[in-house]
Specification:
single chain; 449 residues; alpha+beta; OB fold (Dihydrolipoamide Acetyltransferase, E2P); BirA Bifunctional Protein, domain 2; 2 domains; 20 strands; RNA-binding
RNA sequence: UCCGCAGUAGCUCAGCCGGUUAGAGCAUCUGACUGUUAAUCAGAGGGUCGCUGGUUCAAGUCCGGCCUGCGGAGCCA
């Protein structure tokens, strides 16, 4: 029994048929038919139709019901009735009505709107049933992630968000002044710090916001997004891939178990999600390149005069969206591509002892065009090789002194990966655009609301 | 940053080859209706045609510049 305030919610109404309840919420839609007023009430847990019949209630209550507008806040008292005419089998026979506030000119009508308008009203758009469904799926995916790690011996260790330097030295970072210590940067990954905490606690994960100042403008990029990054001592690349598969399977199956109504609102084909069972597909980068060339997937490259030419895909080039899409078109569940050319990968990734031209890196691509949801690797654990890579990339040796220390005092093989929360939610929910799967998206041309 | 597209009522859009008073549906307001689900019916109000300069007897319409946004690429989760 909770000691804080509790009241009836709409999702629980089927258990309360015949009882009188008071519901607190907002008017989703109204329509009238003479002496009948139909009020669709939403309370965050669901929507129920409330029927106010003039002969059953006072004149004043009926007039109040008649005056209600979209998104007015109300408490409605009435009897729960099973009714076949109702959309979800239950409706409320109104006996009492308290108006908290009459909303005037709510901008988002039940009709169609353009994306620009909706984004400007994001703070209100979240109230609509489709957006609410996405946010509930997002909450479920985040819970599944935490449950999975907490239940498998991992400890949550938060990495700092303000950092003194670029983690990977490649992406553009947001910078800010940090007292007398010069510039600080918003973290684009918690991984390097997770490596340190993994050496302290064995298996850890960080789960927090990350920031990329790149001017990406696609339906799968945000400038601020949430990422979960596990880091495991004594895990090699294969252990890392096994963990990634287990985790993604768990997340998808958890969403299926707990979010059926939401997936239905989204019109999601759940059979596609049911198919997400281990083992996933795996192929090496080299095999993927062979597959691309065997299937005649060409690489488009701009010439200097602006024209485009097509080439066979050269070994050593990184995959772009067209290559990933082509590869995934043959699969109905995720695929891990591993052992990429080390030249296109970050300095901290360990090179394959059996072939130094490739790094022990892996990406997991999701099906149905969802693209890359995971990037990970086994980390370079040899002090001299890591130092060499830092120098080769022209990174500050001094700034990475603490990171090199991890290779100096009890270095062990270790691995980890990062999973993008929004990309995962986009895939599972079937949302068209990543801006719909975070309450307040931060994008190159939008920071309001 | 590059390529492409758009901006007309609160919203979604139409507006022809430049032409006389700027159009529709929805939303809003008023009225009718005991079963609506994007109700229906009758009526009403609602416009700096993104901004700016130009061409023209005449510009929402043609041309230039700017602003804002959208779609995609690259980068990546």
């Amino acid at each position: 029994m909770s000691r804080y305030k509790s009241y009836h919610t709409i999702e629980n109404l089927p258990n309360l048929i015949g009882q009188e309840v008071t519901l607190n919420g907002w008017v989703y839609d109204t329509t009238s038919k003479g002496k009948l007023q139909f009020i669709k009430l939403r309370d965050g847990s669901g929507i129920v139709q409330c029927v106010a019949f003039k002969q059953n209630i006072s004149e004043e209550t009926f007039e109040t019901a008649r005056s209600l507008t979209q998104e007015s806040s109300v408490s409605i008292t009435g009897t729960v009735k099973a009714d076949e005419r109702a959309e979800n089998g239950v409706e409320i026979d109104v006996t009492g009505l308290k108006l908290w506030q009459l909303a005037k000119d709510y901008p988002i009508t039940p009709k169609e709107h353009g994306i620009e308008f909706l984004m400007e009203h994001r703070h209100l758009w979240l109230r609509s049933s489709r957006q609410r469904a996405i946010m509930r799926i997002r909450a479920a995916v985040a819970k599944a992630i935490r449950d999975f790690f907490d239940g498998n011996g991992f400890r949550l260790q938060d990495s700092p968000i303000l950092t003194p330097n670029a983690c990977e030295g490649t992406s553009t970072l947001f910078s800010t002044e940090y007292f007398d210590l010069g510039n600080a940067y918003l973290s684009q990954s918690g991984q390097l710090y997770a490596e340190a905490t993994a050496m302290a606690l064995g298996r850890v994960y960080t789960f927090g916001p990350t920031f990329r100042a790149e001017k990406s403008k696609t339906r799968r990029h945000l400038t601020e997004f949430w990422m979960v990054e596990p880091e495991m001592a004594f895990f090699d690349l294969n252990d890392d891939m096994d963990l990634a598969e287990d985790m993604v399977e768990y997340i998808v199956q958890y969403a299926l178990k707990t979010c059926q109504p939401e997936l239905k609102i989204m019109g999601r084909d759940v059979s596609k999600l049911e198919a997400v069972r281990r083992p996933f597909h795996r192929m090496s980068y080299t095999e993927a390149v062979e597959w691309l060339n065997k299937n005649n997937v060409k690489l488009n490259k701009k010439n200097q005069d602006g024209t485009e030419s097509q080439y066979d895909f050269p070994w050593g080039e990184d995959f772009g969206a067209p290559q990933e899409e082509a590869i995934m078109s043959q699969f109905d569940k995720p695929c891990i591509i591993h052992r990429y050319p080390s030249e296109v990968k970050a300095f901290y990734m360990k090179r394959d002892p059996e072939n130094p031209k490739v790094a022990l890196a892996m990406d997991m691509l999701a099906p149905e065009g969802a693209g890359e949801i995971i990037g990970g690797s086994q980390r370079e654990d040899n002090y001299d090789l890591l130092l060499e890579r830092i120098r080769h990339e022209n990174l500050s040796e001094e700034a990475f002194q603490w990171y090199l220390d991890l290779r100096k005092y009890g270095s062990v093989p270790h691995s980890g990966f990062g999973l993008g929360l929004e990309r995962t939610v986009k895939w599972i929910s079937g949302a068209e655009h990543i801006r719909e799967v975070i309450p307040f998206p931060r994008m190159i041309y939008r920071i309001v609301p």
